[in-house]
Input
Amino acid sequence: MRKITIAEILSLAEYKIRPVITKLPPSIVTNIYSPARKAFIKLLARETRTGTYMPPESEARTLWGIRFNSGIFNAAGMFKHGEGYYTAASQGAGAYLAGTSTGAYRRGNERKGVLHPFMPYPKSGSASNWMGLPNEGHESLAKRLSKIEKVEGCPLGVSVSASPEIPDVEAVKELVYGMELFKSANVDFIELNESCPNVPHDKHTNSIGLDENLLNRLEYIGKNFIKRTGANPPVIVKLTNDTDIQIIPALLDVLAGLGFGAVNFGNTSTGYEKYASMINSGDKPLFDYFTSTFGGGLSGRILKMRSFELSSYAASYIEKHPTSKEFYIIRTGGIDSLEDIRQSDEAGIALNQWFTGYFENFAKHGHSLYKHLFTRHN
Output
């Protein structure tokens, strides 16, 4: 019988006492969970499952000539500093994603004495965070990733973002420099985070609703990285789940035309009014306090329908308008079950990423979460 680990014991204990903790005043709940969450991820990243689990061969898929042992892996923000690759690989993840990384060190957001605020909504299967892209910078992360001995079928990816506080022209040059570092570090794919809700964005939309600043960044990356490297490694663009579905056709045409490899719908949401009705009444005081005090991005089950709506629409468009090179749709938001993955497969969505759903499953099944995910129906 496999020995239970410290991370598994703590996660299961928290899962059981969570209903009690979340009845405390919301400010206290935030003060408990914000540091505890980071400490837990550090602990988790040091543990590996005894014996590597290999998902059924039927779950494997090959994209851009890269084998993914399954169609699900962690979203950006879980392993910010490049830790935990062997944890994910031993559990049976379809890939591993580090970051998000920026050009220079960022401490991240702090308010009311809380660094990197986080709030769970346990009855709603959801959460909020206001992190602000804390990271050590491209050079530090690239150095760490370059030392990873990759496991077959668990590709190494990295999430990157332009530094939000410097002018766009400088930021995109710094971003491409970082992408060069990660290419040299032998990463298999790069995800461009264009959707972080916890840092400032300067937007100027054109006549068809596309952000001109985003288009300028994409064009610069297409010319100065993708074209020059032959799209190796492939670059994925991650967009928010708040994306207007009407602009997706034009957006996909731009991305495919510039040589990007995929689009990911999407990141967390700031649609507080839209999702307030989906929050369980027992979680409402926590939700109201966090969104009014910190803002931040919503994640978890409440985004399930929207992530599928955007991703399936995009997949349908690509099917009707085939691209000249490989281009895929990735889904993030509310993924927490095999049923979600099957729904994505049927809609032509190539990959899925999870975050809140990962921790919910880890609390119940520990390091065997991927094994449970893929074997309970077989």
